[in-house]
Every structure is written in structure tokens, then in C-alpha cells.
Design a protein that fits this description.
- The protein is α/β, with parallel strands linked by helices.
- The chain has helices at residues 2-26, 29-43, 48-52, 61-67, 73-86, 116-136, 166-172, 176-179, 194-207, 220-242, 253-259, 267-277, 285-288, 303-311, 357-362, 429-443, 474-488, 490-497, 513-523; strands spanning 98-102, 110-114, 144-147, 153-156, 162-164, 211-215, 294-297, 319-322, 333-334, 344-345, 351-355, 378-384, 392-404, 407-415, 419-420, 427-428, 449-455, 460-466, 505-508, 536-538.
- A hairpin with a 4-residue loop joins β17 and β18.
- α16 (429-443) packs across α17 (474-488).
- The model has no long low-confidence stretch (mean pLDDT 92).
Amino acid sequence: MIENLLVHCRMFAIRHTHWRYLIKSANSPLVTQEKILEAILRDNRNTRYGNAYRFDEISSYQQFAQKVPVVAYETLRPHIEMQMRSGIRALTTAQPTLYATTSGTTGEPKYVPIIQAELQRQKRHTALLTYCQYQFDSLAFSGKVWVMAASAVEGRFDNGISWGSASGFLYASMSPAIAKKYLIPPEVFAVADNGLKYDLILRLALAEKNITYFSAANPTTLLRLCELANLQGCTLAEDIEHGRCSRASELAPDVMRAIRKKLRANPGRAAELRSIFNSGRAATFGDLWPSLRLVSTWTSGNCGVAVKSARKLIPTATQIVELGYLSSEFCGTLTVDCNVSAGLPTITDYFYEFIEPEKWDSGNREFRLVHQLESGQDYYVVITTPSGLYRYFINDIVRVEGFFHKTPLIRFVQKGKGVTNITGEKLYESQITETLVRAERRFGVHPDFYLVLAYVERQTYHLYLEANVIAENVVEIATYFDTTLAELNTEYRAKRESVRLKPLEITLLKQGTGELYRAYCIQSGQKDGQFKVVTLQYADHCQFPFHLHAKGD
């Protein structure tokens, strides 16, 4: 097959270019990082930000740390918007060609500047990730490749510069030869109506049995697709039988042009699908796409719960591998070993600083560089990017788990804001996740969704749980949760023993509440493809009415 030969040739080229350079860099992380910092400061020394902090006088990391402050997005927002509106070189000498969008802490969207050179870096990152996965299982790329991407362009500013998704932009700009392997045309991801978009994606996916690779940032996307397939399957099977799309009248002309050739009549596949959907049980990914070999998605942090649910829906032999620590701001890690969830920091592209959460919380600003990290330790990440984020506090906690040559491997643990403190206990999202894992083993709890809210005035934590739990077990599970959190967090135990914290409470949720919460968050500004549940929050920061979705109401 010519397409598979082209993929093989592409992997050979990556091995002898990008991969060799990566190995060299991983063997000298400090030298690599010094070079990237020097390049970023040199390229942007004549910007307003560079002039303000005297980039031209900085010749070492120590000077950089002394002169340039650690900042959050809101500090940079005025500079970003100034360059966006007027073209004044506020942050970068090169003008951004795209602004990546993500939700902000103030409710106002964040627009992350992306210069052209950054897009090239991300293109190289994607090539290297594909190479690593190809080395892990080359047959995963023998059939159709199903990637859930975002829209490349979601809108344009008055000056004509677009805002949207950098990953979507790269997806849309693939070479035609490689694009033939991909199942979903990029135009489909630009469909604004989420329901229509997912119907269209499933119409194309169900028609193709030989899908060997699936990728989505969040594993809940796989769960959602499976659920929708069972709801819409018979209708879509009829479309596949007759080579049509029953919602074609709702599609823009460019979308219709992109999918027209894929709407071939396939009575055989339609009959196969009807047999699956009418079998008397819910269809799984394994039933619909038995050739699936590799699923690439987030497996760390609170995504681990959804991964367990996804594992039950895919073929037994299918491997689930870590997609990497990724965000709108930067590509944080490359999964160089698909057998582990930790990845290699992208030290050839961005400059990294790290600090222990305890130090940060106490006001200590003693940072470490990548070569100084210790295995097993958690750190906050601070990054400096060529696109104008200087000493940017991204509010993510990562953990070091081993090394690749001389460079540590890191894994995303949780968002920093997934920490609450009612009476001094400083409860972490990772402790909630670990407690749920233990409860799953103890009680056979299989959660579809969970979220814990801290009620400061009531001095208690409340677990909202959508799972296979009967009401009679709620008190026992709540007690177990309370006891386990006390084991994992000594301050929590002390506050409970002193009755400053009241016992944890549980509300069982109706089936589908998690999906309603997801839809609510997306409508509030979060991006669908990058949606992450912050599973530990303050109650006054969460406006979703969970009490209206309690079982029995």
C-alpha cells in the first residue's frame, strides 16, 4: 500500500534528523537549555518587554532569574493585547501568526501568541511523537488513523490574524500524502455545532472498519463517542448503506466538499453495524473497530479514571499510550517510551524552571533547572517560550519518574489550583484521585465521573459521584474516603481529629451528569478537545447545580 510506504519513509527520515538531535540534546540538558534561553532573549531583546527587563544585559540564568519576574497570564495580557491590536513589538520581534485560545482564570479567554517558528517546533514535536509510537507498534499505522483535533481557525481579529488551535492548524496543514491516512478531514472539526460535528465524525468513522489508531487528548472523548454511537448507530448505519449524510443540509459547502468522496454506499458495513447495535447489549469500540491497536490520550492526573473506563471498551490487545503533557501554551513533554506515562521535557524548544510546591506556597523562589531535578519529587513548572511567555507560571504540578539518557522524565500530576485549604489541611487533587483508586479496589466502585467541592463555611468536603453505587453503601464509602484522606494527608487527619473539619459527605449523581457538567464547562469557555475536570475545587468557584442531579430527586 503506497500510503504505508510513505509513512515508513517519513519515519526513516525522522530517525536520521529530529531523533538524532533529540538524543544529543538529552545527553546534555544544561547546555541545550542554556542555548534555548540565549536564543529567546537574543531574538526578543528589542521588544518592549525585552527593553523593560534589559534582555540585552542578560548573559546567564542567574541574571535572568534576578531581572525577569515570574508572572501569570493576566500580567502578560496587556502586552499580548497591545501587540495583537497595534502590531507593536511588545513581547516578540516576530509577529504572531496565530493565537491559541484557552479558558482563563478571570472568565475572559486567554489568547496565547504563536509565532511561525513555534508552529514549526510543534510540527517537529508531532513528527517525533508519531515516530516514537511507530517504533512501539508500526501496525498501528497500517490502517486508518483517527485523530480528534480542534478547529484550526475559530475566528479572526480585526487585523486578520486568526485565533484557534495550534494543533488544529498543524492537522489542517499536513502534506496530502500523509493526510490520506487520516480518517477525518480538518474541515469537520471547524463545525461549530457540537452535536452536528460529533454526528458527522461518527458517520465517517462507522463507515470505516479498518481503524488501527485513535487519538484524543482526553479519554472521556472516547467514552462520549461510544455512547453517541449506541444512540445514533442505527440511523448512521442507514446513511452508510445508502452513501449519504442525513444532516448534509446543515453542513457548510466546504465541509460537504471535504466529505463527499467518503460518502460511498456500503451495504455490507451497514448490515454489520446493525447486527452489532441490535445485539441486545451496548456496542463497544472493540465491537465497532476490532482492528484498533493503539489509543493515544492523556493517562495522568484525573484522566486515569476515564482511562480505566475506556480500557473496558477497546479490544483486549489494544495499547493505551500517553499523549504527553500538552497545553495551549506549549508542548510540555514528548512520550519517548510508550511503555511509561512520563515524558521527556521539550528542552530543545522551551526553557524550563521548576520549584517544589512547598517552597512556592511558602514564598520561597529557589528554582531548579531541568538537570537538577530529583526522581520521585513533585514540582511546579515555569516556562519561557519563543512566542513571548517569559517565566510563565502555568500552575501545573509534575512529577519526575526516571530519566532518558541524562534528562529527567516528567509526568503531569494535577493543576495547582486543584488544591484546597479550609482549615489548614491543604488537600491535593492527587490525594482525591488516590483515595478513589483505593475505593475502587475496596468496594468495586467504577466511577464515570467524580468531583469534590470544598465548602468553607460548612467546613466540609463533598464528593459528587456518578458510579455503580447503591444508596445503602454511601455511608460506608464516605467513611472510607474520610479515613483514607486522613492516611494520605496528616493535616487532614489532625483537622478531623480536632473536629475543625466535619466528615466528608457524598451525593450520588444520576447517569449522564458528568457529560452535562462537561457541556456546561465548554459553554462557559473551556475548549472541548482540551477539557480537563478539576476534580477538587472550592464550592463557590463551581456554579454547576449538582444538587439538581442527585439520584432520587
